[in-house]
Amino acid sequence: MPSLFRRSGSSPGRVTVQDAAIRTGHAAGRGGDALLLDVREPHEWQAGHAPGAVHLPLTALAAGAGLPAAAQSRQPVVVICRSGNRSQRAAELLLARGVEAVDVIGGMQDWAGAGLPVVDAHGRDGTVA
After folding, report:
1. Can you tell me whether residue 13 is helix, strand or coil?
2. What gap in Å lies between CA 62 and CA 117, rounded to an integer?
3. Range of the domain at 84
4. Which pTM value belongs to this model?
5. Which of 17, 21, 99, 129 is the most exposed place for a label (fewest CB within 10 A)?
6. Contact at 8 Å (CB) between 22 and 5?
């Protein structure tokens, strides 16, 4: 599979939710090689997020917060937000830190619209807030 990711110093790539699902292991029968990083605010995350995603709000990332332990491996990062705007900014910040990153076009709205799994903070069916 060709790389969807670009190294630091270039603009971040953008992927569809279908490509993101494949790269993060959310597509049926596919193992993923990338981490899904959700950069929405806590109330959005609690209402609904992709199972297995790591949460770090864009506000914290922009303020210089380090990546959570689960995101500190050298694996590529697929960044998602509600609609794709915040994730694009987060991917730029990650690229500047030397992290391979792409953002998801359409964000969690398109993720849920494609029928991909969404869970709430308690592991039950979630919604995109």
Report:
1. strand
2. 28
3. 13-113
4. 0.89
5. 129
6. no
| C-alpha closest to that of 83 among 113, 105, 60, 53 | 105
**Tokens 């991909």, located at residue:** 116
Sheet containing 101-104: which strands, arranged edge to edge? Answer: 13-15, 101-104, 77-80, 35-38, 54-55
pLDDT (0 to 100) of residue 2: 44
Ranges of residues in the chain with a pLDDT under 50 are 1-2, 6-8
Is 125 contained in some domain? no
Enter the tokens of residue 38.
């959700």
Active site residues: 81
Q: Specify the 3-state DSSP secondary structure of 69.
A: helix
pLDDT for the residue 73: 75
Neighbouring-strand partners of residue 94: none
